[in-house]
Specification:
Elements (H helix, E strand, L loop, with lengths): L11 E8 L7 E9 L7 E8 L2 E20 L4 E14 L2 E7 L2 E17 L11 E3 L3 E14 L2 E6 L5 E4 L3 E12 L2 E19 L2 E18 L2 H8 L18 H6 L12 E3 L6 E5 L11 E6 L5 E2 L20 E5 L4 E8 L2
Parallel strand pairs: 1-20
Antiparallel strand pairs: 2-4, 2-14, 3-4, 3-14, 4-5, 5-7, 6-7, 7-9, 8-12, 9-10, 9-11, 12-13, 13-14, 15-16, 16-19, 17-18, 17-20
């Protein structure tokens, strides 16, 4: 057990501890996925509708997206799929609506570029790989719709007025294990995201969009995420519970909090801005929490118990994988002991 005491805080004492065994070895990784060229996917089906008349055209989507996946290599299952950004383009389209000899609308869509992102954390049901498609959205941020309609001129610039549409229905993430070499497992990743949204151009003139966006790529994940971190950081034989450089932060905690091996985080920093209350702040590293962090308390020497989640900012205990906000612990009294516990994968 490795311990660190808070200096200058008579109302509280904090220690941290690492325990081996029992944790779910989830790994949170960033990757780039490309829109696939398979038939019947990544085609925008765009319908222009006015006065009950419709014209449907197709536009081909291409590009790449930046995604975050949380994977359990022990079960080959995904629990998170979050889109952080994307760089998509769509081919130009032209629409013509006619009512007998009368031209109802002639409209061009050109120069379209889009990004794609997730509004909240993209949770995935691990057993099925299914997720709520509405958590993900496409934003047209460049290009224009120009032309004329029976109600007047059409001139909508996406640079000036971006258009955003959300996914619809249920999406899926599929992992296929293709290789295992040492501590590394390789997966093919296939993501299917259905889209459906509309954008009114004028009174009675609407653009309706639906598509199935399919993304694919290859990803490498360590079977033992701590071991993968230790190897990457040049300390392949460093035990989880020990402190390789004697800075007071055990190796496993350094990994779990999202730091690299040479980082020197200050743990349990007191909050001095709330008079009469002792708050402890633990700041995760730049990549966020890599493994669940259990915050436990020992009050009046009564034994270690998991702190009530309402004593933590964020109200989750253990602090979940991917969290990048500071862990703030609200305390009171003069004989409080607090520790962070991390389990070795």
């Amino acid at each position: 057990m490795s311990r660190a005491l808070i200096s200058g805080l008579p109302a509280a004492l904090a220690i941290f501890v690492m325990l081996a065994g029992g944790a779910i070895a989830q790994v949170r990784v960033n990757t780039i996925l490309a829109l696939s060229d398979a038939p019947d996917v990544n085609v925008l089906n765009v319908t222009l509708s006015a006065l009950g008349i419709e014209d449907q055209e197709e536009s081909e989507l291409s590009g790449t997206v930046n995604a975050i996946l949380t994977i359990d290599p022990g079960t080959d299952q995904v629990s998170e799929f979050t889109l952080s950004s994307g760089d998509l383009t769509a081919t130009d389209m032209s629409f013509s609506l006619e009512l007998g000899p009368i031209s109802v609308a002639d409209v061009d869509l050109s120069g379209i570029k889009a990004t794609i992102s997730t509004t909240l954390q993209g949770l995935v049901t691990p057993g099925s790989g299914q997720f709520d498609a509405s958590l993900h959205q496409v934003t047209l941020y460049e290009g224009a719709i120009t032309g004329s309609a029976i109600t007047g001129e059409v001139d909508e610039n996406f640079t000036e007025s971006p258009v955003t549409g959300a996914g619809a229905g249920t999406g899926t993430v599929t992992l296929s294990r293709t290789a295992v070499e040492g501590n590394i497992v390789t997966y093919d990743v296939l993501v299917v995201l259905p889209l459906e949204f509309s954008n009114p151009l004028q009174d009675g003139v609407d653009v309706i969009v639906n598509s199935t966006v399919q993304m694919e790529g290859t990803i490498e994940v360590p079977l033992d995420p701590y071991l993968g971190w230790a190897e990457l950081n040049g300390i392949p034989d460093a035990p989880f519970e020990e402190d390789h450089d004697g800075d007071g932060v055990p190796n496993g905690l350094l990994w779990a909090l999202g730091y690299n091996v040479n980082d020197r985080p200050s743990l349990f920093t007191p909050d001095l801005f709330i008079p009469g209350q002792v708050d402890l702040i633990v700041t995760p590293g730049p990549v966020g929490i890599r493994a669940p962090v259990f915050v436990e308390g020992n009050f009046d020497q009564g034994g270690w118990t998991l702190l009530d989640p309402f004593l933590l900012l964020g109200f989750e205990n253990p602090v979940p994988v991917g969290e990048d906000w500071p862990i703030v612990i609200f305390l009171s009294g003069d004989r409080n002991f607090v520790r962070l516990r991390v389990e070795k994968p």
